[in-house]
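User: Please predict the structure of the protein below. I'd like the answer in structure-token form so I can feed it into my own downstream comparison script.

Assistant: Understood. Taking the following sequence of 524 residues as input:
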Amino acid sequence: MSNLSGVSIPRNWAEVTLGKVATFEMGQAPAGSASNFDGNGTIFVKAGEFGTIQPVVREWTSEPKKFAREGDVLICVVGATAGKLNLAIDCAIGRSVAAIRPCAGVLQKAVYYQLLPNVEQMRANSTGSAQGVISQADLSKLVIRIPPDREQTRIVEKLEELLSDLDAGVAELKAAQRKLAQYRQSLLKAAVEGALTADWRATRAQSGKPQETGAALLQRILTERRTRWETRQLAKFAEQGKNPPKDWKARYPEPIAPDTTDLPALPKRWVWASVAQLSLVQKYGSSAKTNEESTGVPVLRMGNIQDGELDLGFLKYLPQDHHEFPDLFLDDGDIVFNRTNSPELVGKTAVFRSQITPCSYASYLIGVKLSPRCAPEFVSAYINSAYGRQWVKSVVTQQVGQANVNGSKLAALSVPLPPMDEQAEIARLLVEQRLAAGEQEVMIDLSLNQSAAQRKNILKAAFAGQLVPQDPNDEPASALLERIRAERAQLSAARGIQRTGSNRAPATSSPNQSKRGRKPRTTA
């Protein structure tokens, strides 16, 4: 493997397999009973959070088995992180890690920076278990380039200068990403607390125009809700050819009122309401098995709700003639609430705005159709805000590793209700500022991708001989390789002599051994 296929090799350089210029120490995990976390013993490094220039994951163990040395390159060799690299310190290493030990004259970072662009390819080529394994034989076959030893030093120094500047830029971009995430939460908080429209309210108050209060709006919504129910009941009686019973209106299911205990104060003219009071219909989605036949009806799932918005990048489908249709079709303005997910993600919510029609939703979602006098973007913003997240934590239940918030709890959720015109203004501002934040996010992602491409180009140029000039006075890499070959041959011969000297036969052999023709046992 080499990321420089087809790129000519500079004069006085050499291209070899890694096994020719390095040895390998394959890790071995110590017994679990030998480990401790009290800061006493030997640093123990395993796969964990690999990929940074400094060792980041370490445990303590009193019985290390295999060691890496400062100057080695660590590589994950098992699992999803196979191929990830790190620079070693003196430490013990677990079975998911191997130490690549460059021979004298081959710089640690010259190996590290050459292997770095090939991490994904190493992982793709890993074999063995279902997790994927990179063997010592695999490591030995990796192809790298060896510049003269002095040029290795110049290359590494230049690389670290350029990559340091690049890393600083990436750090700034990631800091901007974090600030955008914080801004989104701050925006939601300002919206549901009334701070986002404080100036708007002041201007409206000075205009002298009559303004409906949230309380009056809620009463209108409740009256219309009851009228709608009565109209449906009368239609049912007429369809059945029956006269309405005397007390039929008393059977109206009153929606649960909001529990305002410990809730914060609201801006003037706002009021608390329950989701049940504001909603016309609340339904669980379909549990039918979906497919990837795009001729069917798209079905939103929990993964389609991202950062308070619908992501339609990956959809599953149900047949057009599915028996739950059209009852489970979403209407413009419906809210989709994720009722089952991990504890961190359960409760995430978005508004369906006819991005794709017809459209349905899966059983882990709840569809909520609100009164036309209630802006769904505002209710969704409240559920996604810090207030909504706190409510989720207070009502969530755990079931087999997943968290659940059922429809009854959602119906009882208390949400603020501003006057209609203020709801519309809040919804407008939310959409406007989210779009602006989204554009910034796209630009940051683009810059991060460009930085990643630039990093690959820098590394490629470094080991194509294009980053620093070659010095004709440098000793050629062939001389370095010859020294490495001679030193390894000498070491191998010395080990052979040592092994031969230790294989001395015992002074006498037992009768049984002589009769059976067995050779005397050797000692290590």
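That's the full token string. The chain is about 40% helix and 15% strand.
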